[in-house]
Amino acid sequence: MAAAWAVLVVLLAAAQAASAAPATAPAFLWAPKNYGRSDDTKEVVHYQTVSSKSLAKSVLAEGGWSNFICSREAAQRNVDVAVIFIGSTLQSADISKDNQVDPALADRLKLSFTSSNFSMAFPYVSTSDDEKLESSLLSGFAANCNSGFERNDITYTDKCTVSGQDLYKYPNMDAINDLVVSGRANPFGRTGLIVFCSGGFQRLGRLVKSEGELLAQLVELLEHSGAKYTILYCFLSS
């Protein structure tokens, strides 16, 4: 089941040796349970370099997100929560290294990729865009959803650099939990879209957690709630 991950590590190690390789970062998409896809394909890897806008398009079309964030029909919801986790730790070359900056993150991504019902990997996402990644992805979704995307309720952690009149920002994991639980209590509502930005929350104080620990805590929260969920992890452009 982990064959695709092993091939991914080998190819990234080869790319690391090429000094002329452009700066890229990986993205991973997974769903632990079936969420309406018509096939049972898993562990898909796209080896070509893609932009953040191309990533958004692939997540919608091949990843199946168009079924629940572009659809006007809330009653046919197959996913309770879709999460965009914007990281800042992992770059493409780091996946093949023995010594990880954040071992918990690498372990969580590997486990999620190899054990989920459906997973996709994008090893080479260009990080050179001037636009913030969260804004680029959301505008990419909107551009490929026609008019359906505007109806989504999007919430953010309070470290996200976004603005808007109807902006909902959440200050801690308890608030995210309340959001997930309330969404589960409304089976006819739309899929909740959560943007979890690098660093987590503004007021962690002394309880600063690594990115891997935050991702693990978020996954545990989703699992404990019983929510049907899918997560897109991608790297924040510097």
Automatic annotation (TrEMBL):
Signal sequence residues: 1-20
Domain of life: Eukaryota
Keywords: Signal
PANTHER family assigned: 2-C-METHYL-D-ERYTHRITOL 4-PHOSPHATE CYTIDYLYLTRANSFERASE (PTHR35285)
Name recorded for this polypeptide: Uncharacterized protein
